[in-house]
Amino acid sequence: MKQNTKSEGKTVAASKVSLAQVMMPEDTNPAGNVHGGTIMKLVDNAAFVVASRHSRRNVVTVSMDRMDFHHPVYLGDLLFIRASLNMTGRTSMEVGVKVESEDTLTGEVRHTGSAYLTFVALDHRGRPAPIPPVIPETPEEKRRYKEALERAAQRKKNRRKD
Q: According to the 3-state scheme, what is the secondary structure of 130-146?
């Protein structure tokens, strides 16, 4: 099988990941609620895997857009994290992550939260390095790509204000 070069591009499906993890006592506070920071670390890890798989380079997290927690996650819940590439620039990329929790006793699934993370690929000297473009194929991927372009423009505008 031929490997993609940097200029050929890669599909969204080529790097997407799904992770599942049971929430254990060390993930919770005394009331049995999972710490938000625990969930955010898992979100960052899943997004890192997507960015690394797409770029085939070391990557660093540049930003995480707002993370709202819509529902609590409890001790014993199964946490599902689904991450996929939304958009690429020359050296950066946006990864979208959706978090769901499942009560393993009742089967109830709750949308816990979502976030967008931006990563930059690095070369062997630790400098930003070019990455392959993403190729959105499905209508959903194309919609997410378009929305990611709008968010990237807003982030750039916000950076100029700082």
A: CCCCEECCCHHHHHHHH
